[in-house]
Design brief:
By secondary structure, the protein is of the alpha+beta class. It is 18% helix and 34% strand.
Length: 83
């Protein structure tokens, strides 16, 4: 598991960044842009455990759709807790 910290670099946070709740559990969908690599997707749970996608996205909307698809297909439990 890798954690990116937007505060450490020059990142632009997407307005599509949001919280997501399923089965009474909540995660944060973080989407931010790197000048060099496109849009970055990260899902963070309440204990600050993070799932960071290695692939980057051409748009923040594409990153959000990937997050929502993954959460719906795998369930929120797959993104909660340490791995």
């Amino acid at each position: 598991m890798t954690t990116a910290n937007p505060a450490d670099n020059d990142f632009e946070q997407s307005p599509l960044t949001q919280t997501y709740t399923q089965n009474d559990q909540t995660v944060q969908i973080d989407i931010y842009k790197s000048d060099e690599h496109g849009w970055i997707l990260e899902i963070v749970d309440q204990d600050n455990n993070s799932t960071l996608w290695e692939d980057h996205f051409e748009s923040d909307q594409a990153a959000l759709q990937e997050a929502l698809d993954a959460l719906n297909e795998e369930g929120i439990e797959a993104f909660i807790g340490s791995f």
